[in-house]
Automatic annotation (TrEMBL):
Its EC number is 5.4.99.5. This is chorismate mutase. It comes from Chryseobacterium fistulae. Keywords: Isomerase, Signal. PROSITE patterns: CHORISMATE_MUT_2, PROKAR_LIPOPROTEIN. It is an enzyme of class 5 (isomerase). The keyword ATP-binding does not apply.
């Protein structure tokens, strides 16, 4: 009888543990989503700077520099390199949606040059660069094949709660997609 009870308790304990390891751990997910939000919040500064200098929103050369650096860092940190590249490419795409929306809005408002705007190379890009290693550290904590339908839905809800409402659903969906893909199947 005692043995049976013991087995039952072990069973319950293992079930709890396996349920908890399903999907992304709550606190880590929150840190990652906050960092994604922080990176997105730089996009309006980029947009303002590019509006004044008339630089194109798309900068493939800059993207390549970041992605090559990301890949090298990911390798050192033992983070899946393809996942890391996909993730950062998605962050660029999300940021570019925000930049395009703002430029369209400013065009519609006949906005002239802003009196002041941040310097892209010296003020804005360093903020983005400082977030890269922090984001990679969080990506390392995500386990492939650990998300079921429930945890993926929860990730959508949490992302919508944590990421600033000024960024629309298309932006949010874009920036979290690689996490879902990696967590879902690998
Ligand atoms: O640095 C820039 O020029 C940006 O526009 C920012 C950013 C990024 O998110 O890192 C986004 C789009 C560009 O294609 C390159 C990089």
């Amino acid at each position: 009888m005692k043995k049976l009870l013991h087995l039952l308790l072990v069973g319950i304990f293992l079930t709890i543990i396996s349920c908890k390891s399903q999907g992304l751990p709550e606190s880590e997910k929150e840190i990652l989503l906050k960092l994604i939000d922080k990176r997105l919040s730089v996009a309006p500064l980029v947009a303002k700077s590019k509006w004044n200098t008339k630089a194109p929103i798309d900068d493939p050369a800059r993207e390549k520099v970041i992605l090559d650096g990301v890949q090298a860092k990911a390798k050192k940190m033992v983070v899946d390199e393809n996942f890391a590249r996909d993730f950062f490419q998605a962050q660029f795409e999300g940021g570019k949606i925000v930049q395009r929306q703002l430029h369209n809005q400013w065009k519609g408002e006949n906005q002239g040059l802003f009196d002041t705007s941040p310097d892209l190379a010296h003020e804005v890009r360093p903020i983005l660069d400082s977030l890269t290693p922090q984001l990679l550290m969080e990506l390392k904590k995500i386990k492939p094949n650990s998300c079921d339908t429930h945890s993926l839905k929860k990730l959508n809800r949490d992302a919508r709660k944590i990421i600033n409402p000024i960024f629309n659903d298309q932006v949010v969906e874009t920036v979290i997609k690689p996490i879902k893909n990696y967590c879902k199947s690998h």
